Amino acid sequence: MAQFDAAYCFGDYDGALRELIHLFKYGGVQTLAGPLSQLLLQVLPLEERFDMVMAMPMHWRKRWLRGFNQAELLAKPVARRIGVPLCQNLRRKRYTRAQASLSETQRRQNPVNTFAVCKPEQIRGKRVLLIDDVFTTGATLRAAAGALKEAGAGHVSVLTLARVDRREAVAELPLSREVTPKAAGVLS
Fold first, then answer.
1. Which one is the CATH code of 6-184: 3.40.50.2020, 3.40.640.10, 3.40.50.300, 2.60.40.10?
2. How far does CA 125 lie from the centroid of its chain?
3. φ, ψ at 146 (rounded to 5°)
4. Which of 65, 19, 6 is closest to 162 using CA atoms?
């Protein structure tokens, strides 16, 4: 079963963008959520329409340790701006190790069978925009999107701030569209 239908990303996970994401995610500078969400909106195609926005869920234990879900803080202003609800119907059903600490092979296996949709009737046939901070191998995003599709979502697009390992990730997405700032005309 196909996972996500389209992938949009603001930029590469390096330089200033990487530093901002680290300040936001690990440094706890939650006030960066607004400006970072504006970057997400810059690459979201104007012609795309969604019925709801979802943030990549965190396991309750990770959320408790960090104190917030960075994807949720990014998703709230996006949902508000495009005029759709922020739905919290996607859940992590098991604890997984942090992707950043794993090898590439482990990253692909780690999120398998991790996500569940609590109320499938709310997403059946809907167009969902799934938001996360970083697209690394895409394994977590594919697993989450797969759970949404299995629950009946009609279309799932993913939107992230940054992307790592671009050449390999693009090669694995033959049915996906990718929009980056350069392709979208956001940056020169």
1. 3.40.50.2020
2. 20
3. -60, -40
4. 19
Pairing of strands 52-55, 6-12: unpaired
Q: Which two tokens stand for residue 115?
A: 């996500």
Q: Which of 18-22, 94-98, 165-169 has the lowest mean pLDDT?
A: 165-169
* Buried residues in 62-72 as b, exposed as e (16+ CB within 10 A): eeeeeeebbbb
**pTM of the model as a whole:** 0.80
139: Cα separation from own chain's centroid: 11
Closest C-alpha among 13, 24, 60, 50 to residue 156: 50
Per-residue model confidence as pLDDT tens digits over 131-164: 999 998 888 899 999 999 999 999 999 999 999 9
Predicted local distance difference test score (pLDDT) of residue 175 = 39
Q: Helix, strand, coil shares of the chain as percentages rounded to 5?
A: 40, 20, 40
Instruction: Say how far residue 161 (Cα) sits from the centre of its chain.
Output: 8
Residue-wise pLDDT for 84-120, tens only, equals 999 999 998 765 655 556 566 665 555 567 788 999 9
Mean local confidence (pLDDT), 13-26: 95
Domain boundaries, the chain: 6-184
